[in-house]
Specification:
Keywords: Coiled coil, Metal-binding, Zinc, Zinc-finger. This protein is mainly alpha-helical and 270 residues long. 76% of the residues lie in helices and 3% in strands. Among the domains are: 54 residues, Herpes Virus-1; 57 residues, no CATH class.
């Protein structure tokens, strides 16, 4: 086949043997020729599809092959689209029929709805009239009920007042009894406290008596030992001037405190 094509176009074959059939580049040691497996022309390595699994094909033949494949795909796709268009037209026709049927049903439903709406409107009017009559009757009953409640409340208020008066009388009597009992108890407690305080008072010795009954040494010892208690008693009795005097005496007498404590006298108060 290659020799047959060369015989048909010897000039082109002779020229192609020295230059690339696509870019017209001259072949040399670095730029070697490649023969196309379809048109049998020589092309350089830049314009040949030299796949390891397929025969070498030049760019022009490759373009032609791709174009044929695209034409086949286009024809198939166009046929598919025409078929889909035909199906869509049939589907559209069926849908139109369905829509027409639905329109008829919708119109029937609209007419039926209008008729039912009139009936419903009449029923609503009747119901509103009955409701109004019932509300008037309920209002009248509520007014009567309100009157009865007022009468009941007045009766309950009177009953409550009577009960409160009764409870007040009973409470007053009970309170008087409790007050009497409480007063008697308080009187007994006061008598006991009075007796106890009198007994304790007889046993106590006042600060003034301590001063007169003790010598100077014992008096200093008592002031040092019972300072806080004496101040508490004097403050309770209201003798603030004696507290100041006592504190002054204690401060000046701290030096001989040890001597006083070590050598107390034999006073009866100690």
């Amino acid at each position: 086949m290659s020799s047959f094509l060369k015989l048909l176009n010897p000039l082109k074959s002779e020229k192609s043997s020295q230059h690339c059939n696509i870019c017209n580049a001259s072949f040399n040691l670095t730029l070697k020729p490649h023969e196309c497996s379809e048109c049998y022309t020589l092309v350089c390595s830049e314009h040949v599809n030299n796949s390891p699994t397929d025969d070498p094909v030049c760019d022009e033949c490759l373009k032609g092959r791709i174009k044929k494949e695209l034409n086949v795909e286009y024809t198939y796709h166009l046929s598919s689209l025409k078929k889909e268009l035909s199906e869509l037209k049939a589907f559209k026709s069926e849908k139109r029929k369905g829509i027409a049927s639905m329109d008829t049903k919708i119109n029937e439903l609209i007419d039926q709805t209008r008729s039912e709406e009139k009936t419903h409107h009449k029923q609503v009017e009747d119901f509103e009239q009955k409701t109004k009559a019932s509300l008037d009757q309920i209002k009248q009953l509520e007014e009567e009920e309100k009157k009865l409640k007022n009468e009941i409340e007045r009766s309950q208020a009177n009953t409550k007042q009577l009960k409160e008066k009764l409870v007040s009388v009973n409470g007053a009597q009970q309170s008087r009894k409790l007050e009497k009992t409480g007063l008697e108890t308080e009187v007994d407690e006061f008598n006991e406290q009075e007796t106890k305080l009198l007994e304790e008072n007889q046993q106590l010795i006042t600060y003034q008596r301590v001063r007169t009954m003790s010598c100077s040494k014992c008096h200093k010892t008592i002031k040092q030992r019972f300072k806080e208690k004496i101040i508490e008693i004097l403050r309770f009795e209201g003798h603030e001037e004696m507290i100041a005097s006592l504190e002054g005496e204690i401060k000046t007498g701290k030096k001989d405190q040890e001597e006083v404590t070590r050598n107390p006298c034999a006073c009866a108060i100690i």
